[in-house]
Amino acid sequence: MHDDVSGIDLKVLIFDTDYYALQAMNSYLAWDRRTRVIHLAEKLADVWRFLETAHETALPDAVIFDIDHHTQAETLSAHLHRLAHVLHNAASHRHLRRQILCTLSELDGLQVATAQAILNSEATGLVLKGDIRLQIAWGLVFALDHDFVLTRSLVPFCQNLGHPRLARARVLPRQREYPDMSERVREAIKHTVIEGMPAHLAAHEMRLSQHTIRSYVREGYRIMESHDTTRYPQDMTPQEKAFMRFTAFEEDNTHTVG
Q1: Under a CB-based contact definition with an 8 Å cutoff, are residues 209 and 203 in contact?
Q2: In the chain, is it the N or the C terminus that has fewer CB atoms within a 10 Å radius of its CB?
Q3: Which parts of the chain sit beneath pLDDT 70?
């Protein structure tokens, strides 16, 4: 797993028909310096318009592609092939692997033919939005080193597909636990770091004093730093580091689909 934040700069295009999911992913990716959102699209036509008019140097390294409304496997396959063609033709001096990460809201909506179409394409992953949540940037970076990635809830479904790519696929690690962090400290970090609340609003939400909230936040920062070996740029703020640490994967990245 990459442990140097300054060495990665992924340009990301997000396509999602759900406005709130689109904005949430944009917000989470904005907190992580390894990812830079260059375009948001609620409609597929918007994706193609951007890709067809953007200069080669402005094309994305990664596309997060919502498949919720793609009920026809043949149509999805054509879209993924077209995306891969555009990304492969893009000029890049960074030599990063181009990615197409497919996202899905509900496992019940996934058909065998759809999953097979994704595996047969040059897509680099399939994730449930409810599984990946805050860790979308970590998922994109993890996928740089693997042929195909999945979130944990998709493993039982995919194990029955028998596709050869699954032998090389990896399951995204779980979120780092920080077992020595109390629930109250975790909640204070969630409000102030993840949700961006100032101390007085977090204090109101938790029915505590601002002094207590600040104390919890300091304790949370200390605990997370003690578990982290990542190298960060010198100008990165404590809040940026805290976001990355709070959303980080566990170190174990050996879990395979098989």
Answers
A1: yes
A2: C
A3: 1-4, 6, 90-96, 252-254, 258
Tell me how far apart the alpha carbons of residues 187 and 180 are, in angstroms, rounded to a whole number: 14
Token couple for 201: 């609003």
Compute the distance between CA of residue 184 and CA of residue 29 in angstroms, rounded to an integer: 26
Residue 133 Rama label (left phi>0; alpha psi -120 to 50; beta): left
- How many whole angstroms separate alpha carbon 106 and alpha carbon 66? 12
Which of 61, 24, 69 shows the shortest CA–CA distance to 44?
A: 69
Can you tell me the distance from the alpha carbon of 232 to that of 210, in angstroms, rounded to the nearest whole number? Answer: 29
Sheet-wide strand order for 62-66: 35-41, 10-15, 62-66, 99-104, 125-128, 149-150, 170-171
DSSP state at residue 166: G
Q: How would you class 91 by CB atoms within 10 Å of its CB: exposed for 0-12, middle for 13-18, buried for 19 or more?
A: exposed
Give this prediction's pTM. Answer: 0.91
Q: Where are the alpha helices (DSSP H) in the chain?
A: 19-30, 44-53, 73-88, 112-120, 129-132, 136-143, 155-159, 183-189, 199-206, 210-226, 238-246
* Residue 1, helix vs strand vs coil: coil
Identity of residue 66: D
Tokens 């982290």 locate to 228
